[in-house]
Amino acid sequence: MTVTSAIASFAVVAGMLTVMPGLDTALVLRSAITLGRRRAFATALGILCGVLVWGVAAAVGATAVLTASHLLYDALRVAGAGYLVWLGVGMVRKTLKERGRAASGDAAGTADAAGADATWLRSWARGLGTSLLNPKNGVFYMAMLPQFIPIGAPHLLMGVVLAAVHDLEGLVWFSALIFGTQLVRRWLNRASVRRAIDAVTGTVLVGFGLKLALADG
């Protein structure tokens, strides 16, 4: 396998993984609809940074420890599950609070709550944390990456290149989602729709977290 064919083959596999509906897509869509384009790109960038970290870790063999150590895997799995449940519960609670403010006519309070959730760094950190605390990402890279590193090729450099290919595909996909969402954001940005989106996304995150917590490592 040549370097070119390895990159092309990995791009096909990573591309299929990228467009599969999942947690990353849900987070980016939620950010695009409720927080706007800049915050959505911040969330996407955080996710992509996490992917790059996992790719580099797999290339240098760090995730071999994660694969070999059941205790470490379980610790990361529980931490990731707790993080997802925390995010999801936070979104559902925010929805309930905003619904109460809307019922009482407290528009200023709703605006303040939205502003507190809308910092660029916070959105980036949310995407990064979600990516890094998902042990499935590490296992995927540990299982897949070595198969696409040609004999004699530098592992670290190839790991960075392959992770960068995955990131590029993710950036294209997330950009399509974000710009597509902006076309109908005027309708989606209504308070009732935002609350429904937060409630659904929060429920999905809690579901992902519980599934991860209860999974047989």
TrEMBL record:
Subcellular location: Cell membrane
GO molecular function: amino acid transmembrane transporter activity
Domain of life according to the entry: Bacteria
Entry keyword set: Cell membrane, Membrane, Transmembrane, Transmembrane helix
Organism: Streptomyces rubellomurinus (strain ATCC 31215)
Membrane topology of this protein: Multi-pass membrane protein
Listed name of the protein: Lysine transporter LysE
The organism's taxonomic lineage, starting at the top: Bacteria, Bacillati, Actinomycetota, Actinomycetes, Kitasatosporales
InterPro entries according to UniProt: LeuE-type
TM stretches of this protein: 6-29, 41-65, 71-92, 139-165, 171-188
Cellular compartments per GO CC: plasma membrane
Keyword flag Membrane: yes
KW Membrane (keyword) present: yes
